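Hey, I was hoping to borrow your eyes for a little while. For a while now I've been wondering how a particular protein folds. The fold is given in discrete form, as structure tokens running alongside the sequence. Could you read through the record and tell me how the tokens relate to the sequence? Take your time with it, there's no hurry, and the full record follows here:
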Amino acid sequence: MNASAVNVSAPPRPSFGSVLADNMSVAAFANGAWGQPALKATGNIELSPAAHVLHYGSTCFEGFKAYRRPDGGVHVFRMDKHIERMRQSARQLVLPELDAAQLARMVIDVIDRCRDQVPDAPGALYLRPLLFGTLANIGAASIPASEACLIVLASPVWDYFSGGVKPLRIYVEDQSNRTAAHLGMVKTGGFLRLMYACTLTIWARDEPAAASTLPRRSRARVVCEATSGPASLPSGPRPV
């Protein structure tokens, strides 16, 4: 048999974000200060059913990647810009102020501990810092969370969309607002959920596409695409 005629298909890769790396970094905010972060085995967390985040949506996050270079080194892309945007999100949501240096250290520690799990190109290690209010009080609708948790997760990833690289169709929704104008720059899960109804409507028409929104007052530019953040972040990668 001609060996070149044998069709050996590669095993399917896991869907984006469905596999977590072995370790995560966790820090807690209480009594007006951040505690020391700790590297832990990735696993479930304990959370009060009265936690502020569950009732009042006090959470924000970021998402960026670390890439393995041909020389074996690992470079993280735009970490400083993403950290600054997350600090901005925390301020807008009146969550505890993030220390940029501490968060950067947590990210680098996770990358270093999970270095063997960074895929070769075109794969990457996706980093997900997550901040959420943990104050246990179901009567705290009018006050910000004075206790919080910061977690840095990592996930080996490949293509975001199933089926590999291919042209992406964009549907522009120009009737519904994604969010309040003063919170458009905030990355929080509640805003992304507002896109779901629009996206599912498109899929129901058998028109696969990613939904984007235009501001109702100014139809000049797309402000948010459902699978990406709203900010422009012009800077390059840095080694870790």
Q: What stands out?
A: The two ends are 47 Å apart (CA to CA). The helical segments are 52-56, 79-92, 100-113, 189-193, 196-204.
